[in-house]
Design a protein that fits this description.
- Chain A is α/β, with parallel strands linked by helices.
- Chain A contains 15 helices and eleven strands.
- Chain A has an eleven-stranded mixed beta sheet, sandwiched between helices.
- Chain A is globular, with a radius of gyration of 21 Å.
- Chain B folds into three domains: 292 residues, no CATH class; 88 residues; 59 residues, Arc Repressor Mutant, subunit A (Orthogonal Bundle), CATH 1.10.10.410.
- In chain B, the strands form four sheets. Chain B has a nine-stranded mixed beta sheet. A three-stranded antiparallel beta sheet of chain B has the order 5-4-15, with no helix packed on it. A two-stranded antiparallel ribbon of chain B has the order 3-16.
- In chain B, helix 12 packs across helix 15.
- The chains are: A alpha/beta, B alpha+beta.
- At the A-B interface, helix 9 and helix 10 of A face loops of B.
């Protein structure tokens, strides 16, 4: 058995029994990177030298029986919009191509305490804006299942890396589906926790009220382990919450809702079939399943593409060439800022900054941004009502399997539609997970998404694990090990 | 056509908290640039703001002290504009939900009091400081140096309604606000350090008009003197324009301290659209009743109440006003001396006149530790009982400001006790007449003025110990006889 195919708990058990050393695992993972990076371009940087040292330290801890952490010596890939002290954080943007962070994100601090290894920084759509990892200033990432296809995005590098086993697990960030959609495209588990349970301190903001860090893993249990390590209230993030988890049933006393609006037009038959397959399994196990209608879900993309760009237009204003990052000279300070932003940002980022600036402008605020806020509030209320009737909501994660590179780059609206199913969880702050359930006729992975009420993350993971065990998806992209 | 001016004032007060508004960097008072910085206050990617509770306590205190209604569900907004010393290129401020609304502040001019209505009191963060070289303005500077020590320091903005009608009122308002912030202990209140900064909105309209004229904003007034002059200049400029039939343009004008004129900075067309929206990094701020009650317990005796108390001792409104705007030790000394002497006018005159005058002359900033209210009370009692002259009292005061002794001891040592015995004075007069026979002759031939000379001689020979009133009376009698 190849160690890089194992789950975190399995690896830890081998470490503890001294049947495998962290340094051996790291060599294997690094070898996988060497085999796959040229074709996939999952990582922007690899931290080989430091990791050889850190893995040796892990070896020592396990050989002395001193390790207390499940993540000790586990190589985890980090999306390049999360700060690691003294390493570059580029956000896949020309703007930050030379930027080194002087501080650690809270999630990185927490993982360092667990003696986790960081394989390196992974590719993403510039500033996490995109659904295919094609909007990177440093070249696109390919889907490990078939390199003609995109890995999804924006955490496409993280997903491709776990898929090709150049890391055991990865951190991504999810603003409208950026963890779940690439996880689904790459046959992996992608978990977006309840908004506020994982600190955003040190995550380069795209849309602050929607962004959330979470894991991309091979198994639900791996996601559970990482979530429990990175979550918790943080005094440096005013939006972080005390992680007081609610217990809802995960056994067959639970009621499941199938979201009607996400099983209609615009969703492929293949994607619907995966949901139906899971529903049948659940019914056979005695779960109560019913169809639920949440009409406002149809407005998700419209709401999202007002709120997210509005927030991003302010969040990205700090990239001006004054203090760090790219600077393109000009005759005056303002010219310098204009030149820097004109050259530093890619087309999609500019499109969203313009959209957001427009939506917030005098005379348009009420009509656009104000209305979007109102609709968002209604959606939150609708979900709260729905969760009085059902415990979990099920839907496809994505309307289709992965699409081909270049297929949607010239049509932003079509690209935006690929996040139709994932956006509602961000707007309502819900925990949501994508688990792989099968393959399409093109031999590409498909997944289903499950959502539950805020702060029921642990129950959601328990319930997802039951489905995972029943579905027995053991697909793995070939040719990288 | 009779015209009347209308003025509104926006004041920024820098709070004297230990740390900045949204990070834990120390607030420093130094010329050394960029020594108190962190990822948050220089806007590094991924950094987040966390509000300073002390600053919210201070602004609540100010809002309560001006009789404002407190917005219990306040909110922070982002005010978007690009400027090199604004690290995020948005300022965290408050918009439609400020901490305080609809207050008022009593001001005093001479023996009259007036109330200035306050529209709002809100909280925001300060910017960094720019030093433009080659030119004082950013548009034409050859280079700009930036210091971010001030970036993120908490500011309170207080906006009056357009109710001020003269430069005198404006100055009295700022003086009152300054004293209030000092008494509340929320600011050093030092204008020369920029602890208080103010802009004025000025318009002029016909006396009988119910509508205000076109508003012009004046910036760059750095002292009370420039506030007064800039307002007077602007009223005159606008009045003349209206009389000449020239249209007044809505614009921002810059006060030129040296030329003593205002000139156009930017017109309304060029004014920014700040695209305010609620800051998604800062969840709604809730000021609970308990919090407000707690803040109320910190409320000191306000300047207005201090004046009322002082007036009950017999001082006029203007005298009480001057004392209320004096340093704490002066206020305290007055109350103590008055308690002993029950003579408000003498206590007031000695403290605000002779004592402060002599201290200034001798460069004494702090009263010596032995100096207390007993000394001044004793001096006042000695004068009242005719035991010393006013001149002697001044000499005694000089002595006790530099030597640890008592007024009586000084009077004794320096022989300053006043001679009130007419026989003894007559003896001395006879001696003086003998020694100055020529002068006496000239007086008798009509040179009345020389009487003063003889009184002077008498005072000199007696070391000023003779009661001057009695001396003159007896001398005249002697000369006539």
């Amino acid at each position: 058995m190849d160690a890089s195919n194992l789950s975190i708990r399995e690896i830890n058990s081998l470490f503890t029994k001294k049947e495998l050393k962290p340094s051996e695992l790291y060599s294997k993972v690094f070898e996988n990177a060497a085999n796959s990076e040229a074709a996939l371009h999952a990582h922007l940087t690899l931290f080989e030298e430091e990791n050889i040292k850190k893995a040796a330290e892990s070896d020592k801890r396990f050989s002395n029986g001193e390790s207390a952490s499940l993540l000790d010596g586990i190589p985890i890939a980090i999306k390049d919009n999360i700060n690691i002290k003294n390493y570059k954080t580029t956000c896949s943007s020309k703007m930050l191509s030379n930027y080194t962070s002087p501080y650690d994100a809270t999630v990185i601090e927490k993982l360092k305490e667990q003696n986790t290894l960081f394989t390196g920084k992974t590719n993403l759509d510039e500033f996490a804006m995109g659904s295919s990892t094609e909007n990177s200033a440093f070249g696109l990432t390919k889907n490990p299942w078939n390199t003609d296809y995109v890995p999804g995005g924006s955490s496409g590098g993280s997903a491709a890396s776990v898929g090709a086993r150049s890391s055991i697990a990865a951190l991504g960030s999810d603003t409208g589906g950026s963890i779940r959609q690439p996880a689904s495209f790459c046959g992996l588990v992608g978990f977006k926790p309840t908004y506020g349970t994982v600190s955003r301190f040190g995550l380069v903001a795209f849309a602050s009220s929607l962004d959330q860090i979470g894991p991309i893993t091979k198994t639900v249990d791996d996601s559970r382990i990482i979530f429990s390590s990175i979550s918790g209230e943080d005094s440096r993030d005013a939006t972080s919450v005390i992680n007081n988890q609610l217990n809802i049933p995960s056994d067959n006393t639970a009621t499941i809702g199938v979201i009607k609006e996400l099983m209609e037009d615009g969703i492929s038959d293949e994607a619907k079939n995966e949901v139906n397959k899971v529903v049948e399994i659940l019914k056979s196990k005695g779960y109560k399943v019913k169809e639920i209608s949440i009409p406002i879900i149809k407005l998700s993309i419209s709401i999202y593409y007002l709120i997210a760009p509005a927030e991003c237009s302010a969040n990205l204003a700090r990239f001006d060439g004054v203090r760090y990052g790219l600077r393109v000279d000009g005759n005056t300070s303002y010219e310098m800022m204009e030149n820097t932003r004109a050259e530093g940002f890619g087309a999609e980022v500019k499109r969203r900054i313009l959209l957001g600036t427009y939506a917030l402008s005098a005379g348009y605020y009420d009509e656009y941004y104000g209305k979007a806020l109102q609709a968002r509030k209604e959606m939150i209320d609708e979900f709260a009502k729905t969760f009085k009737d059902v415990d979990y909501l099920i839907s496809p994660t994505t309307p289709t399997q992965a699409f081909k590179s270049g297929e949607k780059t010239s049509n932003p609206l079509e690209m935006y539609m690929s996040d139709l199913c994932t956006i509602p969880a961000n707007l309502a702050g819900l925990p949501a997970i994508s688990i792989p359930t099968g393959l399409s006729k093109d031999e590409l992975p498909l997944g289903v998404q499950i959502m539950s009420k805020p702060l029921s993350d642990n129950s959601l993971l328990d319930f997802s694990e039951i489905i995972e065990n029943e579905v027995q998806f053991d697909g793995q992209p070939k040719g990288w090990l | 056509m009779s015209l009347k001016p209308t003025i509104g004032i926006e004041t920024h007060i820098e709070l004297n908290t230990n740390t900045k508004m949204f990070c834990r960097c120390a607030v420093v008072d130094t010329d050394e640039p960029n020594i108190s910085l962190c990822p948050t206050c220089i806007g590094l990617p991924g950094a987040l703001p966390v509000p300073n509770k002390k600053a919210i306590e201070f602004i609540t205190l100010l809002a309560l002290s001006t009789g404002c209604e407190i917005t219990s569900k306040g909110m922070f907004h982002r005010k978007n504009y690009f400027y090199p010393d604004l690290p995020k290129n948005y300022q965290i401020s408050q918009f439609d939900l400020p901490v305080g609304l609809n207050g008022e502040l009593e001001i005093v001019i001479g023996e009259d009091r007036d109330f200035i209505q306050i529209e709002r009191v809100h909280m925001e963060e300060d910017t960094g400081k720019s030093s433009h070289s080659g030119s004082g303005r950013i548009e034409s500077a050859t280079s700009t140096a930036l210091d971010f020590n001030r970036s993120g320091v908490p500011l309170v903005e207080i906006v009056t309604k357009p109710v001020i009608s003269s430069s005198k009122q404006a100055v009295a308002y700022i003086e009152e606000l300054r004293q209030l912030s000092i008494d509340l202990n929320i600011s050093e209140g030092r204008l020369e350090k920029g602890n208080l900064r103010f802009d004025a909105n000025i318009s002029v309209a016909p006396e009988d008009s119910t509508e205000l004229g076109t508003k012009v904003e004046i910036k760059n007034m750095n002292s009370l003197r420039s506030l007064e002059r800039a307002i007077d200049y602007e009223i005159q400029r606008q009045t003349k324009a209206l009389e000449d039939g020239v249209e007044i343009v809505q614009e921002t004008r810059h006060w030129d301290e040296n030329k003593e004129v205002t000139s156009t900075m930017r017109s309304k067309e060029g004014s920014a659209d700040y695209r305010y929206f609620s800051d998604p990094d800062l969840p709604n701020m809730f000021l609970s009743d308990e919090f407000i009650k707690e803040v109320e317990t910190l409320m000191p005796l306000l300047p207005k109440a201090q004046r009322e108390e002082l007036m009950t001792t017999g001082l006029s409104l203007s005298q009480s006003n001057i004392l209320s705007k004096s340093d704490d030790w002066i206020k305290k000394l007055y109350v103590e001396v008055f308690d002993q002497t029950k003579d408000s006018i003498a206590s007031y005159n000695w403290i605000t006149g002779e004592l402060q005058g002599q201290m200034r002359k001798a460069n004494i900033e702090v009263l010596p530790e032995w100096f207390n209210d007993d000394y001044l009370s004793e001096i006042i009692e000695l004068i009242k009982s005719n035991k010393i002259s006013f001149t002697s009292a001044k000499i005694i005061l000089t002595e006790i400001l530099t030597t640890e002794t008592t007024p009586s001891k000084v009077a004794e040592q320096k022989n300053l006790f006043q001679e009130n015995d007419s026989e003894k004075i007559s003896e001395m007069i006879n001696q003086i007449i003998k020694e100055n026979q020529d002068i006496v002759d000239r007086i008798k031939s009509g040179e009345d003025k020389l009487v003063g000379f003889l009184v002077g001689q008498l005072m000199k020979q007696s070391n000023g110990s003779v009661n001057p009133g009695m001396a003159k009376e007896l001398l005249l009698k002697e000369l006539e006889g």
